[in-house]
Give the backbone structure.
Amino acid sequence: MSWPYGILLFLVTVIGMEGFAYAAHRWVMHGWGWFLHASHHTRRHGNWELNDLYAVIFAVPSFILLLGGVQLGWWPGFAWIGAGIAAYGAIYFGFHDIIVHQRIPTRYLPKSAYMKRIVQAHRLHHVVETREGNVSFGFLVAPRPEDLKAELKRRGRRGVRAPETGPGPGKALAEK
């Protein structure tokens, strides 16, 4: 397979993963998979939460496609697709776990309009601690925060958590 075609396949996979992530987040994580994802909508105690198992689950197809495309003689495009899935996972980890949830402490503050928008949209997603009533399920594409706030208000703020009073990461997120 030619490099330009492989890179195109890689980029299409990274872009397509946003749609997959949206669907998985909305209809799996906030659906039948809530038993794992619920831990992500409550205050975390320690370094890990049950929701982290989704990273392992979503890494399996990437690993299998990379292995098959590189080592097992499958169609070479599978390696590019597996790499695209892995790249999206790395982008997701950097944005979601490091920038938004600060699981690795950093002094990063979003300055661009795009970064401010997606960070605020994700934080608005997390003000709802229940399975239903959430807004903004994407990670790299998000509606305007004003629209999300209006939608939460329209829904009567169902499931919106009460402000935290003690110190901790949840309070830091609420204040930003």
Q: What stands out?
A: Residues 3-32 form the longest helix (30 residues).
